[in-house]
Design goal:
With 281 residues, the protein is α+β, with helices and mostly antiparallel strands. The protein has 2 domains: 162 residues, Beta-Lactamase (2-Layer Sandwich); 71 residues, Arc Repressor Mutant, subunit A (Orthogonal Bundle). The protein is built from 12 helices and 5 strands. β1 and β2 form a beta hairpin. The chain is globular and about 60 Å long. The protein starts with 11 loop residues before the first helix and ends in a 20-residue tail after the last helix.
């Protein structure tokens, strides 16, 4: 009889990291908080630049998917990942089901040959995606939540697979809570914008502010951004303060989270998505 394969052992420092993730889960209520939660200690166990969160929406009686990413992604890939009925998302769910609904690494190379959105993601450096989800009790064909993790560095390994298995209950409960709260607040003054929502015209983020936001997203200081753009650190600080006011953000991290929710990093001049601009614009 062959020996059973043992799951990877979590190092003591990773156990402390897991504990901080679990403790932080109770504090997450809004979309931007969810994003910040995934960008902190979770990055040690699940290194990623892209996470797609799916939740069953009782209003539409269908799965609703939302991509959150810290690096630019091709518009076709984003559109496909945000559509639960698109070829790429359906393939990932099917492949996960075929693997007995266990956390699974799925290669994109073969799929890229027959799906344009998968090809766009693969061309951006994404070799594999890590997926896992939760089904309704007693109804394995009905999803309640589904998560897709990816990184262009292809640093998701078997340890990350094991970590996702441990973290899934928290991802599931936290994201469903966020999904419900955001739905209840939809249209309210405190509501976070839906993914890809347009900015209010009077508060539009300028091209210079979007450029600075990209550097802020990379964790650069005002001095570093000023050096990169050949402007003073004080000028950068003024731009950052304007960005915070326009987005209604309390700090730089929250501003990045809100900008991602509004798809600002993939938008070109005039508030248009870079993939939607007509030739000559």
């Amino acid at each position: 009889m062959s020996a059973l394969m043992q799951p990877p052992v979590i190092a003591p420092e990773d156990s402390e990291c897991l504990l901080r993730i679990v403790e932080g889960a109770a504090l997450v209520r809004r979309r931007y908080q969810f994003f910040l939660w995934t960008q902190a200690d979770m990055q040690r166990l699940l290194p990623h630049k892209l996470v797609v969160c799916g939740a069953y929406d009782r209003g539409t009686r269908d799965m609703s998917f939302e991509p959150l990413h810290s690096v630019p992604l091709p518009a076709p890939a984003l559109a496909s990942l945000a559509d639960g009925r698109a070829g790429l998302t359906r393939h990932l769910v099917t492949a996960w089901s075929d693997m007995r609904q266990q956390p699974t690494l799925i290669g994109l190379q073969a799929l890229a040959q027959k799906d344009a959105s998968a090809a766009a993601l693969h061309d951006s450096g994404y070799e594999r995606l890590l997926v896992h989800g939760v089904c309704r009790p007693g109804r394995p064909a009905d999803l309640e939540s589904f998560f897709i993790f990816g990184s262009p560095e292809d640093n998701l390994d078997e340890a990350a697979v094991h970590a996702l298995g441990l973290l899934l209950p928290y991802l599931h409960s936290v994201y469903l809570r966020v999904h419900t709260i955001e739905g209840e607040l939809a249209g309210g003054p405190a509501a976070m914008p839906a993914y890809g929502a347009q900015q209010p015209r009077g508060l539009a983020i300028t091209e210079r502010e979007r450029e600075i936001l990209r550097w802020v997203r990379e964790g650069m200081s005002n001095h570093q951004i000023g050096t990169a753009l050949n402007i003073s650190a004080l000028t950068v600080k003024n731009h950052v303060q304007k960005i915070l006011r326009k987005l209604g953000a309390a700090n730089r991290a929250q501003a990045v989270a809100k900008a991602m929710a509004m798809n600002l990093f993939n938008m070109g001049p005039g508030g248009m998505s870079s993939g939607d601009q007509s030739p000559g614009l």
